């Protein structure tokens, strides 16, 4: 079985379309795994079909889950100082989507920022990921001390409860976050509702350029004029105007009114 045949089978078995990911990087990771397991493509497919746990482990292995609280602090400072204030001037409520939320650090950081701005009770955060394992961890909201090392002690105390050596994100601040499994490579617009702010950070860097562009175009399509899209700091959008977006600071984009936007790519 060739690598191409393998990824077609994986698509059928797991629903994950590996063709959308950067090929060389993905192939190298998969070949490394198979070498470690001393197994070939065909036998691995059989294992994935028969063994649900092997399927989950494989998905976990492919989707890189690194995250952190206040990742790129200046982005959250900009959200607090500018974006949330802007949105609250124009909307009664802020609906936010954290797309590719991993183990919850991103949506919980947003919850802290919103509550610090007095906007907690006017906001809802939909937090999605393809990986059910990370979503389970995110829902528990349990973190180790080293994961909160850089957080200001005041925030740590207010938003977390320390129990038996772990920090738990407090329920009252969790309430505005709704976790759900969602594959960004499948049609999702019907599942996310109206939104004013989308964060998709450190997720589409792994996708091929054409897939990235399609995704950015879909995100932009979901935002009203004046809504915001936040990417990871290494995921710059080269020509934001093509997607109807205006760059405010690197990695933060605002949806332009339709009359000002260049024709979209889609
Ligand atoms: C590196 S983490 C980023 C977490 C967080 N956004 C941050 O910046 O800290 C990337 C996440 O994207 C998720 N992911 C990868 N492919 C995906 C897909 N097709 N649909 C939804 N989520 C996906 C992974 O499971 C992983 O949790």
The largest pleated sheet is described as: 7 strands, mixed
Strand content: 15-25%
Morphology: globular
**Relevant CATH superfamily of the largest domain:** Vaccinia Virus protein VP39
**What's the total helix number?**
11
Bound molecules: S-adenosylmethionine
The main sheet orders its strands as 6-2-1-7-8-10-9
Question: What is the string of helix and strand elements?
Answer: HHHHHEHEHEHEEHEHEHEEE
Name the CATH class of the largest domain: Alpha Beta
Spans where pLDDT lies below 50 across 5 or more residues: none
Structural descriptors:
single chain; about 270 residues; alpha/beta; Rossmann fold; 7-stranded mixed sheet; 3-stranded antiparallel sheet; 11 helices; 10 strands; binds S-adenosylmethionine
